[in-house]
Each structure stands twice: as structure tokens, then as C-alpha cells.
Amino acid sequence: MEYQSLTLPGGAMRRVVVALLLSFALPASAQSNQPKDLRPLPEVPEPPELALPAPGTDQEDASLEPQITITRRGEDKVEEYRINGRLYMIKIIPRIGLPYYLIDNYGDGTFATGSGGLDQHIRPPMWVIRQF
Question: For residue 1, what are the CA distances in angstroms to 4, 7, 13?
Fold first, then answer.
């Protein structure tokens, strides 16, 4: 088996090398033309220090945690979740079956779905598939 090398006839190889060198040199020379009226950028100011609460103090976190009210309705256990006194979610745990959630998506206090029109605002109960 004979291997043939790739050779270009005459000065074609020189032309290819010159063309490659020019293709790299021309963009570099075009970038070196800088305007003469350049001014340096101003110094970036230091960011202000944030007043962070001391560790262990939960001043704001207490208002963000939900208040949970657990009641029984028949054989079902109902957990009502409130933030700032507003009911936003209900978790229903039946005696038989998996728990499911009803959520107030719009903050208007209604958990019913459907209003006519194209978007029926259907929000099916969300079942917990797996907990970690």
C-alpha cells in the first residue's frame, strides 16, 4: 500500500500561507486604531453595608411562617394554612387515601374553580407523590 502526500503545485503553498498570515494580521491591526479622546472610567463606589439581623433572631421570619389550624371533619383531618390571617391553602387528609391540597391561587378567598370563558381556571387537587 502506497501513501501519497498532499502537495500543491508551484507557489500555491506560499500563497496559502501568505493568505493565512494576512487573515490573522489584518484584524489585529484594525483593532489597534484607538481614538485619541479616551477618558478613564470613574472608580466604582463601594457597596453600602447591609444591616443583617443577628443570628438566632427571627424578627421577620415569624410573620412569614404560616399559622396552621388542625381540625377534624367527620373522619377527615383538615389543616388550614394562613399567613397574616389570610387562608391560602387547605390540606385534607382523609382516613383512607392520600392527602390532597386546595389552594387559593388568586387571593380572593374562594377555592372554587371555573368562571366560564376559555380558561376555566381548573386547579386540580395536588397529590403528594413522594416526601423526602
Answer: 10, 19, 27
The three three-digit cell numbers of residue 47, written as one number: 457597596
Strand ranges (DSSP E) for 4-128?
67-73, 76-83, 86-93, 100-103, 126-127
- Radius of gyration for the alpha carbons in the chain, expressed in angstroms and rounded: 36
pLDDT digits (tens, 9 = 90+) for 36-57: 788 888 998 998 888 776 776 6
Which candidate, 132, 91, 130, 82, places its Cα nearest to that of 109? 82
Cα separation, 91 vs 94, in Å, equals: 10
Answer whether 102's CB lies under 8 Å from 90's CB.
yes
Query: What are the residues whose beta carbons fall under 8 Å from the beta carbon of 95, sequence distance 6 or more?
Result: 75, 76
Confidence grade of residue 112 (pLDDT, cut at 50, 70, 90):
very low
- Residues 6 or more apart in contact with residue 122 via CB below 8 angstroms: 113, 114
For residue 115, how many C-alpha atoms fall within 13 Å in the half-sphere facing its CB?
5
